[in-house]
Amino acid sequence: MVASALIISKVTRVLLLALCSIVTPIDYCDDTTIRIWDLRTKKCVTTLEKHQSAVTSLDFSEDGQTLISAGRDKVVNLWNLSDFSCKVTVPTYEALEAVCAIGSESTLAKCLASLIQKRLKEKDGSPSIQFITVGERGIVRIWNSKGAVCLFEQKSSDVVVSLDKDEVKRGFISAMMLPSDQGLICVTADQQFLLYTPVEDSEGSLKLILSKRLIGYNEEIADMKFLGEEEQFLAVSTSVEHVRVYDLTSMSCAYVLAGHTDIVLCLDTCVLGTGRTLVVTGSKDNSVRVWDAESKCCIGVGIGHMGAVGAIAFSRKHQNFFVSGSSDRTLKVWSLDGLPDGAEDVPNLKAKAVVAAHDKDINSLAVAPNDSLVCSGSQDRTACIWRLPDLVSVVVLRGHKRGIWSVEFSPVDQCVITASGDKTIKIWAISDGSCLKTFEGHTSSVIRASFVTRGTQFVSCGADGLVKLWTVNTNECIATYDQHDDKIWALAIGKKTEMLATGGSDAVINLWHDSTSADKEEAFRKEEEGVLRGQDLENAVMDADYIRAIQLAFELRRPHKLFELFGEIYRKGSADVQIEKALRCLNKEEFAQLLEYVREWNTKPKLCHVAQFVLFKIFSILSPTDIAEIRGIGELLEGLIPYSQRHFSRIDRLQRSTFLLDYTLTGMSVIEPETNVRDAREKDMEYSRNDEEQARYKVEGQEHEKLEEKASLKRRKSRKSRDVAYKKLRGLTDRGDSSIPSPA
């Protein structure tokens, strides 16, 4: 009976924990009770009533005889499952969210052995249970059931404790021991996963090392910058009060900079000449903070703005000041002189200069590479250039039709680039404030624009979720990338690595690498390899090695050369064995590719004969089952059948036409019908006799023609003489000699 109850308790616990993380973590245990059910009878065996508030977590001891329960009444109860009695109540003085029993063979238990000997002086020999608790304070504590002693407690929390709607502190909301002795994982209220590894130091004390921090959800990303001398970290500000620093090698959150009381809107980073890395942040709490990346502590606070700080920028050359812009429409220059190394007493920063810069909120700031100028962009549709350190106005850039979201100085030229809500990007001359170039291409507001490749190109991103790469000289967009589902608010450019990072409203961080040189090398390598393999193909054709030639043509994806090879084999008619061997070496993917080629060849009347030849060979080699397994065979056959029917119909019509032609030519005596050999010989002899007779008749005819011609010549001469005599007689008649008769 108890065994069944234990099983259903574990199942119930698993289901309840799943509900805790998905629906409402307090509904299932609001009645402060724990119920144990019998799996067979489906009835409640007993109800455990000891907690005074919601029960949030359950676990079992290693031997399965003890149930550990924790709740928001700040106590842990240990229950004997043999008689369902409460053995021990451990006060923790903290609203708990999770409890985990520690196995005796785990690394954590081995590290605790020395602590147990030191803390527990009395040794009664009874077994004890060690368990972990986490809760509203955001720290990990380890307890021993014997004596209700706290064996270990973290000195400081690794999470930012937040408040829920009911103003209740929320640190850790869940925890569990990982299998295979991989450590402890804790879950925070802001959806972070913290992985702890137990380590015993030289003094025998236990330490929990935060080995990895996984961010479950970033919310809306407001700003980001690369961090460190080698730019191996990425500082990100999201819709929370702290800054998350990611390790780019593992993309896990290395640490968190906590101190602001409201959302962090902007940040910037710099590396001092001494190698010290600083981070400056501006928040909705109207303050700016300077952080030391190595100690992960705040080393300076700037108070003075009357509105949210929405833009901030470090000095680029000397790194001894930074500039902030706020929704109170003012610019402030803050000095970094005298910053402490430690973080015990955080000093207040001093403002060196203040100016009322714009008529609306300031969205962006940029400091010139030589620290002589600062440019500010505002919602009032203007960008202003100021001389440092006194913030004296130099020139006002007017021309945008909407607010300006981003400004940046060119690293090589005396110009400034601005991005605006009017969907355009402009480059301005610093000397006179004239607009040099305008770039159009985004379909929505352009939020960020930054120079790359030494000022010859720039990258832009906007509310349309697109990242575009532009060439300054030609005004052309040479590439567009679509990897975001919503607005892109943040763009970070690596100065050394030329790496890009983008983030926005879709809570996604994308890293972009410059692959131009790699692509060129890959293209050159492929071209060189293609030339060599092409030469191998030509050599195989010269050697009449059609098997090798067909394989190379397939690998090089040369359908025209493949057609020439099949055509040559088709014309020779003696290479059927080679083509069958070549086709048998192909796999199903290559057969599918070959059928695609054949389908294209089959659409042209001049190429259909070779296509039908190859198709016949394929169907002769492959079985129907193999043909049916070819990818996309249905679509391929749909393209082959209509044209094949058309070709066969045309050949049939051509054959019928040849019969009619033969009949016509036979009727015209141009050709004779076929006869047997004897008739042919007799006809040949008859033809030869006829030819001899015709030759004799021809000679006789020629002689007869000659005689006839001579006789005709004599008659013509005699007739001519009679005509002359007649003319003489007529002449005499005309003179009156009528006694002379006329010729008969």
TrEMBL record:
Its main location: nucleus. Residues 680-744 are annotated as: Disordered. Residues 680-712, 721-737 have a biased composition (Basic and acidic residues). Residues 1-28 form the signal peptide. InterPro entries: Utp13_C, WD40/YVTN_repeat-like_dom_sf, WD40_PAC1, WD40_repeat_CS, WD40_repeat_dom_sf, WD40_rpt. WD repeats lie at residues 31-47, 48-89, 257-295, 302-337, 355-388, 397-438, 439-480, 481-512. It holds the Pfam family WD40. Keywords: Nucleus, Repeat, Signal, WD repeat. It is found in: Nucleus, Nucleolus. Residues 535-668 form the U3 small nucleolar RNA-associated protein 13 C-terminal domain. This is Protein TORMOZ EMBRYO DEFECTIVE-like isoform X2. The gene is LOC113703454.
